[in-house]
Hints:
Blueprint: H1 4-8, H2 12-27, H3 38-54, H4 57-75, H5 83-98
Helix pairs in contact: 3-4, 4-5
Amino acid sequence: MFFSPLFLAIPSAATAPALIIVGVMMMSVVARIQWDDYCKAIPAFLTILIMPLAYSISDGILIGVISYVACHVVAGKFREISMTMWILAVLFVCKYIFI
């Protein structure tokens, strides 16, 4: 709270170059996605697509987790999904249903 006025004094145009650099650094990981494995490629693609379209990183991550679990369920790869991913997917679906 103490530094809030200082941060608000920085115009949004000044933060754009930093956000571009962060975006470039995030895209370097895309080369390591296993595009041949659709159970990993589809959730990664949806995550990358939803983030800018929804103007929300958290919505992109939510869709990515939900689609990851859904793709593995459709492919019959139940054992590859950890309990944490099951719980997160259920919570995220509930978030979209109730909000």
